[in-house]
Amino acid sequence: MTERPVAIVTGAASGIGHATAQRLLADGWHVVGVDLRDEMPAGVEPVAGDAAEAAVLGRAVELAGSGLDGLVCAAGVPPTGPWDDLDHWHEALRVDLTGVYLALRVALPALTARGGSAVIVGSIVGSAEGSVRSPAYAAAKSGLVGLVRSMALLGAPDGVRVNLVEPGAIDTPFDAPRYPPDRRPDVPLGRMGTAAEVAGAICFLLGRDAAYITGARLRVDGGRTIRSPSPP
Predict the structure, then answer these.
(1) Residue 217 dihedral angles phi and psi, to the nearest 5°
(2) Tens digit of pLDDT for each residue in 22-81?
(3) Which residues lie closer than 8 Å to 21 by C-beta, 6 or more apart?
(4) What's the CA gap between 64 and 98, in Å, rounded?
(5) Are 163 and 152 in contact (CB under 8 A)?
(6) CA 123 from centroid of its chain's CA atoms
(7) How far is Cα of residue 136 from the mean position of the Cα atoms in its chain?
(8) How far apart are CA 62 and CA 67, in angstroms?
(9) In this structure, are residues 123 and 132 in contact, taking their beta carbons and an 8 Å threshold?
(10) What is the pTM of this model?
(11) Residues recognised as catalytic
């Protein structure tokens, strides 16, 4: 019998992380989920705790067993204001950037054992757009670009791939939308994306069809970042 592939998904209790865990389960993966809450999809092996703490991440790697085929870092804090809130700055950098670095650092030996793949959930905010509401969020997500490229170089000799998915406006409870989900004048496709659509992109990058892709950014934004500038 072929052994099931194993993945760790952080932020598996809601939004993109929840949808990714569901998709991986449907595709036959064994999934270890990490989240502050234990409301994860049925079938996920839960680890309750802060996904930005090395000890919590270490427990997840232990549950994964002898090796790890996939790591998905979807845990994060949303952009909030005011822009000069220093506490939010520290928390956004801790969870959205340092937490991802810790996850990659802790999981790299297990990924190396299987020639596994990591996919990090970033954002078009920071990578392509600034944020007057939350420079902290933009800075953290922008930092993921350099982190992913660097970890892709570190992992490449052992066959470990590391890629970045950058969602745009996605219909989840993570952040309150500016417009109705099905009427988005700022998105060429005219609507918000779904968590399942982002999960599909993540699972593509984890899978064999992406075997020659590493250090890449895949934007899932309905064309928002390629639209012509709005008139003043």
Answers:
(1) -115, 125
(2) 999 999 999 999 999 988 999 999 999 999 999 999 999 999 998 999 999 999 999 988
(3) 9, 12, 31, 33, 40, 41, 44
(4) 22
(5) yes
(6) 9
(7) 17
(8) 9
(9) no
(10) 0.94
(11) 137
Q: How far is CA 168 from the centre of its chain?
A: 13
Report the chain's terminal Cα–Cα distance, integer Å: 62
Tokens of 206: 């984890």
Residue carrying the six token digits 């020659």? 212
| Planar angle of CA 117, 151, 58, nearest 5 degrees | 65
Distance (Å, rounded) from C-alpha 16 to C-alpha 9?
Answer: 10
Q: 35: which strand partners? A: 48
User: Which of 103, 86, 88, 6 has the alpha carbon at shortest distance from 50?
Assistant: 103
Tokens in use for 40? 């994860």
**Structure confidence by residue, pLDDT tens digits, 164-213:** 999 999 998 776 677 787 889 889 999 999 999 999 999 999 999 999 99
Q: Identify the residue whose tokens are 């003043």.
A: 232
Q: What is the largest CA-CA distance in the chain?
A: 62
Is the CB of residue 231 less than 8 Å from the CB of residue 136?
A: no
H/E element, 148: helix 135-155
